[in-house]
Write a structure and sequence with these properties.
four-stranded mixed beta sheet; UDP-n-acetylglucosamine1-carboxyvinyl-transferase, Chain; 450 residues; binds shikimate-3-phosphate; alpha/beta
Length: 450
């Protein structure tokens, strides 16, 4: 679905402490993959705790357009009756992936080796994002793509009639590109190999193995080498979607910033390819602890306890950690504004091609709120001024980007004057319960134009 029509202006201000438990919705990355792999399995996949954000709902509708049956049973329980690898039907209409780069790139991969022609589109943000990073490797299978200038949507993909398996070294650290190639490899005969120099989130690999694919991962001198044997019969699964660490980041950071706060965020996955922010906050001196550490479904899980942390220090974030916290830099840059000293974030070029140019979006809003930000093509630094010294008092542009909107709303909980965002509407793409969850904890967040 393309973007909502009326902007929702939202304001956050300093108030009392945040207290209580924050129950985070399902992981967005795993939710997309559950629907897509469920559609590629033969039979019924059951999913609990699916994220019912607009991005994921758009992927569900897309899977229906390809012939799968997607049923919402209520309370986060869903099922998908899949059509099997190579069993997709050609959709009779354009596939609209709304705001979701993950949705469109993974679905392009999944259909790229099926003999069909499919046109994709999205909202203004998605239609501005580069698709060449996916269509270039898909061309190696024999797939053709025609889009707008710069490889942008709307774009038509002509799936390969006789796909050939490929060996592809991913040139940018991107789980979406890796996953698109692996999903295309499912319907190619023989072995498809993907090599990534830096490890990115590994949900596709883990879930493909869970669905019964023959997939192996080796650490080699070239990087992580993933080998997938094509044309498996995927077996339907029962999936419990873990809670999203990228969404947990917002109440966690809010609790560190709002005076007197003490918030428990239960059941958060600490998969090493996703948890970089939490270790970075600890390195900055945050009062953030992992309680009740355990393993669930083969993944490390903990209850996060975040408490007001007025003595954080700026740090150099290790660039090799970037892939494991790539979506968390916007909110980290907010925390950095309240720390003492400079926080240096390098190796983050990918932030420039997310739902918005996230370095530019954060730099402009932070500067307007009185914070010094320096930036280059692949880095940015925030010079923290310490608690009580961040002015605020501006309306930041959210640029159709959920994480930019949530980051500035978290910021307003600790700035001297309130912060507003010109449109909080995009928050529903990934965290539809954000506003109520934050208010239940005690946050002062209001809508200004309703
Ligand atoms: C995602 C991968 C990341 C991330 C996005 C979700 C995924 O994008 O930013 O929110 O589910 O594969 P890139 O692959 O472009 O880094």
């Amino acid at each position: 679905m393309s973007s909502h029509c009326n902007p929702i202006v939202m304001k956050s201000s300093k108030g009392g402490p945040l207290r209580g438990e924050a129950h985070i919705p399902g992981d967005k990355s795993i939710s997309h993959r559950s629907l897509i792999l469920g559609a590629l399995a033969v039979g019924e996949t059951k999913i609990s705790g699916l994220l019912e954000g607009q991005d994921v709902l758009d992927t569900g509708r897309a899977m229906e357009a390809f012939g799968a049956e997607v049923i919402n049973h209520g309370d986060g329980e869903w099922s998908v009756h899949g059509v099997g690898v190579g069993g997709f039907f050609e959709p009779s209409k354009v596939i609209d992936c709304g705001n979701s780069g993950t949705g469109v790139r993974l679905i392009m991969g999944a259909m790229a080796t099926c003999e069909m022609t499919v046109t994709f589109t999205g909202d203004a943000s998605l239609n501005g994002r580069p698709m060449g990073r996916v269509t270039d490797p898909l061309a190696l299978f024999g797939t053709a793509a025609v889009g707008r200038a710069g490889g942008r949507l709307p774009m038509t993909i002509v799936g390969a009639k006789d796909p050939i398996p490929v060996c592809y070294v991913v040139p940018v650290p991107s789980a979406q590109v890796k996953s698109a190639v692996l999903l295309a490899g499912l319907n190619a005969p023989g072995e498809t190999v993907v090599i990534e120099k830096e490890a990115t989130r590994d949900h596709t690999e883990r879930m493909l193995v869970g669905f019964g694919a023959d997939l192996t991962v080796e650490d080699t001198v070239e990087g992580r080498r993933i080998t997938l044997v094509g044309q498996p019969e995927l077996k339907p699964q029962t999936i419990i979607v873990p809670r999203d660490p990228s969404s947990a980041a917002f109440p966690v950071c809010a609790a560190l910033l709002a005076e007197g706060s003490d918030v428990l965020v239960p059941n958060i996955g600490l998969n090493p390819t996703r948890a970089g922010l939490f270790y970075t906050l600890q390195d900055m001196g945050a009062n953030l602890t992992f309680e009740n550490m355990r393993e669930e479904g083969g993944e490390p899980v903990a209850d996060l306890r975040a408490q007001y942390s007025p003595n954080m220090l700026g740090i150099v974030v290790p660039p090799e950690r970037a892939a494991s916290m790539i979506d968390e830099y916007p909110v980290l840059s907010v925390v950095a504004a309240f720390a003492s000293g400079q926080t240096v974030m390098r190796g983050v070029k990918e932030l420039r091609v997310k739902e918005s140019d996230r370095i530019d979006a954060m730099a402009k809003g932070l500067r307007a709120a009185g914070v010094t930000v320096d930036e280059g093509p692949e880095w940015f630094t925030v010079t923290g001024v310490g608690f009580g010294n961040v002015a605020g008092g501006v309306t930041a542009k959210s640029r159709l980007d959920h994480r930019i909107a949530m980051s500035f709303l978290v910021m307003g909980l600790a700035t001297n004057a309130p912060m507003s965002v010109d449109d909080g509407g995009p928050i529903t793409t990934s965290f539809p319960t954000f506003e109520n969850l934050m208010k239940d904890l005690g946050a002062e967040i209001v809508r200004q134009n309703e």
